[in-house]
Write a structure and sequence with these properties.
CATH topology of chain B: Ammonium transporter fold
Helix content of chain B: 55-70%
CATH architecture of chain B: Orthogonal Bundle
Number of strands of chain A: 21
Radius of gyration of chain A: 21 Å
Number of domains of chain B: 1
Number of helices of chain B: 16
Strand content of chain A: 15-25%
Largest interface: A-B, 73 and 57 residues
Structural class of chain B: mainly alpha
Order of helices and strands of chain B: HHEHHHHHHHHHHHHHH
Shape of chain A: globular
Helix content of chain A: 10-25%
Oligomer: heterodimer
Strand content of chain B: under 5%
Strand order of the largest sheet of chain A: 1-14-13-12-15-10-11
Largest sheet of chain B: none
Number of strands of chain B: 1
CATH class of chain B: Mainly Alpha
Number of helices of chain A: 13
Largest sheet of chain A: 7 strands, mixed
Chain lengths: 447, 380
């Protein structure tokens, strides 16, 4: 750990209800689901039918475009239902879990080569955790990335502390990193927070390059970290994983079973006891939030409040998420609220001095505090995007569908989450992530 | 509050699709959202959003204009009475000023908002808050004795030709308030030049010679001894809100502290004007060349323009680096126009409008530099 990379722009949004560092005993639920909608641009092809029995690790569906990429069951049990939405697109594959999980056994390769690791990751379904930049899609197994980045701290609001959630998984993490090393010709980067006491498993990880970052959110976003360590140019491919998913890989390689047990943070101002819960990927949130929510009119977000998805009180934890944020809905009128805000709210604007300079955690709700307007204020997005990317110009090039300009302005370097803070701060309430998503899709299609 | 909300809820269906008054939908929406922040929640993307919105942003600018407005009103009265050698009290001055200024403000808002609402209605858009500021800026940059019909014509021109034809708020190339001002200047040159700056000259109550401005005198080659204190405080003839550098500074503090006005542009404009002024001082030759550089900042509308006009985020440069270039060039051009083109004594108006037009070009070069850095990375 030589040089600390200082991230000078950004904003930490402190919210009430960060998860305390203790873990409730393992919560078993009878209902789990894997959601094809968690993956960008995935068209799934079902392999199992409703009613079939599966073991943890059995394939549920495949990527239609690339059948080698498989999606497997996190638990054993019966495929209860395939939920379809508009135009019969598959939304969820639900599994009714056994009380005792039966695992499919995989044979771990004796030597770690790129081929053998790819094979077992594809077979076990863990490949779906390997995210590719540009575009933030599932990695193409035939590619060789120039680097693999693992961000080991979460700077987002109410973000999880991997030092806590992965304590006890040090060996699996090391094993996972070893496997990742075989997948790239370049370096595996482990990115840590310079400001906190990092567990030895991160700070002294072997065989990798440890980079340390200081600064506010989005310092913990892997896109920002890549930009500062070794930016993505046209034609480059970089893979990213969350440390939790590295642990899954390590466990698979050492035990030969797909053990997707993880600690999930239940956080937010509407949670009675914000804490970690031990559970399994794809769990029904009702089981892990049961009786721990103090508000009937709350929004259940799988992931953080900037980028997560609204899953409702009975939805399922997203494939990539280790956090459930529960915050109040803001569906109330506020008399002259634009002039006299009736309660403090997070902001970067000095024009709300009480909120801005109050050193406290906020109870934030889902009211956008204003209506969508034409783009007027300049210089706001730049304050929270610590990259040499011009966000406004990039978004305009997307709206104009100008592929060349999008490429020139750095669309390969960003995915939606990187610009989520721009969306948060926008005076005109413009849906930045939605626009960027459209641009990424267009670029992936045409480029 | 409850009663108000209930009333609104009761009449709301009339304005919705299929309702009798649907054609007034934008108007109702503007009034409703003015009184109540809607009960919408985020549907996509970030679930929580910043507390700031465009209403608050625009309102903050209006607040920042209040010192200049109040001082302007007082000054209109003070100059009027002083020119007749009448001793007047603060209240008298304010009253006389209010009598002159309030109708102009009312007319400017009525005309501008009327047109804005009509355009939004026809296009089915929500009403943008941009005119809240323009409607206050226009009265502050006209002489107190301006006929109200001229305010109407100029405001209508600014809103329609300066803004709506480009697509409304956020799309305009020129600053709408300055568009109104330049329209007056070019369409009614007789009424907008000469000795018009003290209220009452036209009616013959006040002696014309009392209305001379520094810019006017300098323009015709007179040697001028600027009374620095009076010029800074604003005790001199001029447009209603522009004379007091002090009040503009208070406005600047509000804008910068609230983060709504760009300090980069303000500072850059001052640097540009000072720099150009110093160069001309070094050359020397006539009274205008020799005017101490800092005095350019306190006479005429420089301070008002730099603080409130150049910083309009829509018509200014959009990139951070572009803002520096944009501001410096406004400062330089202001002094150049003042000194080299005495036919147009007020340089800052043309300087800002010219740079409004040039801002996209400035941005273009800043963006190109960013692209170049990205491409160079590949080569390295």
């Amino acid at each position: 750990m030589s040089k600390v990379i200082k991230i000078k722009k950004g904003k930490d949004i402190s919210l009430v209800g960060a998860a305390a560092k203790n873990t409730a005993p393992k919560t078993l639920s009878s209902s789990f689901a894997i959601k094809p909608t968690d993956f960008k641009n995935l068209v799934p092809k079902m392999v199992v039918k409703a009613g079939e029995e599966v073991k943890a690790g059995d394939v549920l569906f495949q990527d239609k475009a690339n059948p080698a990429v498989k999606f497997t069951s996190p638990v054993s049990g019966e495929v209860a239902e395939v939920v379809r939405g508009e135009r019969r697109a598959i939304q969820e594959v639900r599994i009714l879990a056994d009380s005792e999980i039966k695992y499919k056994s995989f044979s771990a390769p004796s030597t770690m080569t790129a081929e053998s690791i790819k094979e077992i990751l594809l077979e076990s379904g863990l490949w779906a955790y390997v995210v590719q930049r540009p575009f933030g899609t599932i990695a193409d197994p035939s590619a060789t990335p120039k680097a693999i980045h693992v961000s080991c701290f979460d700077s987002a609001p109410l973000g999880v502390d991997y030092n806590h959630s992965l304590s006890g998984d040090a060996d699996a993490f090391a094993k996972g990193l070893e496997a990742l090393n075989s997948l790239t010709a370049g370096e595996v980067h482990v990115n840590v927070n310079a400001k906190s006491d990092n567990a030895a498993m991160f700070a002294q990880a072997k065989g990798v390059q440890v980079n340390s970052f200081s600064g506010s959110h989005p310092a913990g976003l892997v896109g920002v970290q890549i930009h500062h360590v070794d930016p993505i140019n046209k034609g480059d491919v970089v893979w990213t994983l969350s440390p939790q998913h590295v642990v899954f890989i390590g466990r698979l390689l050492s035990t030969g079973t797909l053990d997707l047990t993880q600690k999930v943070a239940i956080a937010g101002s509407d949670v009675k006891t914000p804490q970690y819960v031990e559970t399994i990927v794809g769990v029904n949130v009702e089981a892990i939030t049961n009786e721990n929510v103090s508000n009937n009119n709350a929004r259940y977000i799988s992931g953080n409040v900037l980028t997560g998805s609204n899953i409702g009180s009975t939805g399922y934890l997203g494939f990539f998420d280790h956090l459930v944020s529960i915050i109040p809905e803001g569906d109330e009128y506020e008399f002259m609220g634009w002039l006299f805000p009736s309660y403090p709210r997070p902001t970067i604007s000095n024009s709300l001095p009480i909120s801005k300079f109050l050193k406290k955690n906020f109870v934030a709700n889902t009211n956008p505090h204003g209506e969508e307007r034409a783009f007027v204020m300049t210089g706001e997005y730049e304050k929270v995007l610590p990259m040499d990317v011009m966000p406004v110009q990039l978004l305009k090039s997307i709206l104009a569908q100008d592929l060349e300009a999008m490429e020139n302005l750095g669309i390969y370097e960003v995915i939606e989450e990187d610009l989520a803070l721009c969306e948060f701060v926008c005076t005109s309430k413009i849906e930045v992530q939605q626009i960027l998503s459209g641009g990424l899709d267009l670029m992936a299609e045409e480029g | 509050m409850k009663f108000l909300r209930n009333t609104l809820d009761k009449i709301k269906p009339n304005f919705e699709k299929g309702g009798k008054l649907h054609f007034l939908h934008s108007t109702f929406d503007a009034i409703e959202t003015f009184m109540f922040v809607p009960n919408h929640t985020t549907k996509r993307g970030a679930h929580i959003r910043d507390g700031i919105d465009l209403k608050r942003t625009m309102f903050t600018v209006v607040i920042a204009l209040v010192p200049a407005l109040l001082f302007g009103m007082w000054n209109v009265g003070e100059l009027h009475y002083a020119a007749q050698n009448i001793d007047s009290t603060l209240i008298q001055n304010l009253l006389y000023g209010a009598m002159k200024v309030v109708p102009i403000i009312a007319v400017s808002y009525l005309t501008g908002l009327g047109i804005e609402f009509a355009f939004c209605q026809v296009n089915g858009h929500p009403v943008n808050e941009g005119f809240l500021v323009s409607g206050m800026l226009i009265p502050l940059i006209v002489p107190a004795d301006i006929p109200l019909w001229m305010v109407i014509v100029a405001t209508a021109f600014a809103v329609i030709i300066g803004k709506e034809v480009f697509g409304g708020t956020g799309m305009n190339i020129l600053n709408p308030a300055l568009t109104a001002r330049v329209f007056l200047y070019i369409a009614y040159p007789v009424e907008m030049a000469g000795d018009i700056w003290v209220s009452g000259i036209k009616e013959g109550i006040v002696d014309a010679s009392s209305g001379a401005t520094y810019l006017g005198d300098l323009g015709v080659g007179k040697v001028v001894n600027v009374d620095v204190y009076n010029a800074f405080m604003g005790f001199m003839p001029g447009s209603i809100g522009e004379t007091s550098t002090l009040m503009c500074l208070i406005g600047a503090v509000i804008l910068i502290a609230s983060g709504i006005g760009s300090w980069r542009i303000m500072l850059a404009t001052v640097i540009g004007a000072l720099g150009m002024g110093l160069i001309l001082n070094a050359v020397g030759g006539n009274p205008y060349y020799d005017l101490p550089a800092y005095q350019h900042l306190i006479i005429g509308g420089f301070a008002f323009g730099a603080v409130f006009m150049a910083t309009d985020p829509v018509s200014a440069a959009h990139t951070q680096r572009g803002k520096w270039i944009y501001g410096i060039l406004i400062g330089v051009l202001t002094v150049l126009i003042r000194v080299f083109n005495p036919a147009y004594p007020e340089g800052i108006m043309f300087a800002i409008l010219f740079m409004n037009v040039m801002a996209p070009l400035v941005d273009n070069y800043v963006v190109k530099a960013n692209i170049k850095r990205r491409l160079n990375r590949v080569k390295a």
